[in-house]
Structure formats: C-alpha cells, structure tokens
C-alpha cells in the first residue's frame, strides 16, 4: 500500500507528490492524460507571481506582501479568503529555491513582458520545461507515475479517504491529494453553469478551452455528490479574450491577443462596451473573456492602428490588415457605417496627453461612454489591424473548501487524510478575476502544503494500524 496517492499530473499535483516524497512517504501519482499530454494546464504557463522585499535574480525592485494582497483584492473584488491568500503570497517568496532544486530554471522576462519583471518570475522554456523538470525529479526520487489513469471516484468512510477507483480497479492508500483540475473541458457543465442569455443564446457553446482537454471535473463532481464542502461560482473562471481562430483545446499562451489596451474593442454590432485602458494589462487581461462572453454571439474585435505595432507581444496569427477603416470593417464582417462612426467618435474624444504604456498615463477620452481612462490615442494612422476574439477558458473557480492545511471539508469538518490543491481549490483565493501568474502561485503553495500534510497523515495512519 502506498502512503500517499496524488490524483492529477500538473503543477499542484507534482508539487504535492515531490513534497510528500521528500517527507519520507511512498507516493503514487495518477495522471489522467497519456504521457505525451501530461501536465494539465501547467504545460501552457510561463511564470508565477512572487512576493519579494528586495531584488532577486530575475526579479527587479521589490513586490511586498501588502502590494500583492492589494492587487489580489482589486481583481477579485474582495472575493477571497485573506488567511489563505496570504499563505499563498508568503509562500511565493520562498518557493523558487525549492523549485530550482527540482531542476526548474528561471529567466528574465522577454521584452514584450517587461511590465511584469517586478512581480513575476518566468520559467526558462515555459511551463512545458517546468513540468518536465518536475517529472524528472519525481522519477529520480522514486515517485511511481501512472499515465492514462483517470480516477473517477473515491472510496470514503465518514469523511476519511480509503481508496481511489479507476473504473473497476481499486487502489488503497493511507492519504490522498486531489489535484485533478477544474471542469473547463466539460462542455455540458459549462453550458449548465452559464445557462441561456436574454437573447436565447447558450454562451458556453462559443467558448474555446485554452488548456487541457482532460479537465472534465469528474472528481470535483464526485466530491460534491459525496457531500464535500464547496466554494465558488460555477460561472467564474480564468477567462481570456483569445484569437477566435484558436483550436478548441490546448491553444495555450500563443492564442492570447495582448493589444486590447492599445486600441478599442467592438462587439459584432460595431460598438464599444468596456474601458480598454482601465488598468495594466496583466491585471485586466483575464476579465476580457467574460466581457466578450456577455456580448452578442460571444465575439469581440480588437482594433488598433500602426502606432500600436511593436508595443505588445504579437499573437501567433496575424490580424486582418487594411488601409482604411471601411476596408477593415468589411474584412472583419462588421457593419461598416456603425464601425466607422464608433471609431470617429472615439478619436474625437481622445484628449491630448503624454502616452506611456508603462504607467497609468494621462491619455484618456472625454465625453465618451464607456470612457477609455488611459492609453487613449486616436486610431488614425494606417495600416489598421483587427483581431476577432472569443472567450478562452483557462480554468474554473468552483472548487472544494479548504483550511490552512489544504484539508477537504465535510459539513465544516476537515478530513484527516484527504487534501486538495491547485484548480480544485483555487476558488478559495480567486472568487473572481485574475492577475498574471497567481494561479501558479496558488498551485505551488497549496501543492506543497497538501503534500506535506498528506505525508504526515499517512504516518499517523500507519501508526494507528500498528498500535
């Protein structure tokens, strides 16, 4: 019998498995995906958000705890558990040394991401390299790894873990960590969560999934049915406006369109619907998927001119290009008259100022609804570019309620040997909204916490058995 079984194969699961093994436990890791697709959504990540009081290798200046906390409060609108959030924040200041011991390497951010050089540490080679390093470390340490092993249920007894089940196979262990992701790849569940809008549309039918196809929410649904305490709104998620030409699954980071704050965004009727310059892009990019999801047909269009080129990380797919606004409207399939009228009204409303995309500058609109509060430059210099946008779901926030030890709760009581980490509990910290890199901070912090306490629980269970 294994001491600890970890269900999942992404960042949080691997952090749990490695930590439990370091603590002396025998560990089995069960990954639903085949080996070539291992890693869940973590394979598509680039960085994690890190608190630090002084400059540290790839991190410049400082990013103290209180600033990190205020950033989180702002994006979540206060829908966060402060105690658990501060655990994540403090853990983010010390985790990189441990990560380096597992073979993870860091690099300074690329030029298109310099605005997060102070707050985020970037993985050399991205999320795929991070995942590969963790798997190599796990194998060297003796963690037993099984691929293509989707756990569909648990055997529980009075809120305590007994065994996992993969179809008809039963695997007992002394403790368990659940880190199997959210339900973003389950189209039926997304449809149910979002429902119909006033126009009779089912918004989720037009969603694209930025990450793994294997996050079906099977274990989350099982745990809800088993009476585990849950937290979060099923319609809330890390939801980004991505290129409408992206694949249904696994488009990853390269499908993001990062020029939103440098231009305007229109819906299919050729009208603006939100302030594109509300705040820095890393603090606002993850609200735009939800905003687009609330528009007719769940589609939007990011419009820029040649002045924006070179000021953002270019997407993998080129946008539509035209030398007049009328021509661009036709190429995008938008109503030309309304399109041009919207752009002209925006241009007239832009006030003179000093443009600086590295600060909250004084370039804003006046007498326009919705306003653009920063980085408002007229769109008047051809060629013009347009990118069609769809909602891209990264991960969902509905999850299991936890405490400081990452324990799963039943009727308010923590289980003594069942723990949860990563997307399956991120809703404790992220009630809504997102800021770049915080998902990896949550997964790393609570993965290690869950692994540590699972190892302790397994030791207790072994002692009980021999007493």
Automatic annotation (TrEMBL):
Stretches of the chain forming a coiled coil according to its record: none
Question: Which InterPro entries does this entry report, sorted A to Z?
Answer: CobZ, FAD-dep_OxRdtase_2_FAD-bd, FAD-oxidoreductase_2, FAD/NAD-bd_sf, Succ_DH/fumarate_Rdtase_cat_sf
Cross-referenced Pfam families, in alphabetical order?
A: FAD_binding_2
- What are the required cofactors? FAD
**Which UniProt keywords are listed?**
FAD, Flavoprotein, Oxidoreductase
* Residues in FAD-dependent oxidoreductase 2 FAD-binding domain copies: 3-429
Name the Gene3D superfamilies for this protein: FAD/NAD(P)-binding domain, Succinate dehydrogenase/fumarate reductase flavoprotein, catalytic domain
SUPFAM superfamilies, per database record: FAD/NAD(P)-binding domain (SSF51905), Succinate dehydrogenase/fumarate reductase flavoprotein, catalytic domain (SSF56425)
**Which protein, by its recorded name, is this?**
FAD-dependent tricarballylate dehydrogenase TcuA
Q: What is the lineage of its organism?
A: Bacteria, Pseudomonadati, Pseudomonadota, Gammaproteobacteria, Enterobacterales
